[in-house]
Design brief:
Elements: H1 7-25, H2 31-50
Helix pairs in contact: 1-2
Length: 71
């Protein structure tokens, strides 16, 4: 699995997951929507920790900085 997520992308996902978790546990979002968002937040955390987003692969996207080829 080649990393395809940059630092800013990972930070945004972690912040979004924390916000979703706080909103769920304070009761702002509840029910089915709350559970779906909570699962989405867990996916955000998981993909951030492994630095790989499977949805980027089919489109050839990467938010990692490109390495210089003249090294």
């Amino acid at each position: 699995m080649k990393k395809n997520m940059g630092t800013i992308d990972k930070a945004i996902r972690i912040i979004a997951a924390i916000i979703i978790g706080i909103l769920y546990y304070t009761g702002v979002i509840t029910g089915t929507l709350g559970m779906i968002l909570l699962i989405l937040g867990a996916v955000f955390l998981l993909t951030s920790f492994v630095s790989f987003c499977p949805l980027y692969t089919p489109f050839g996207w990467s938010t990692c900085k490109m390495e210089s080829s003249d090294r």
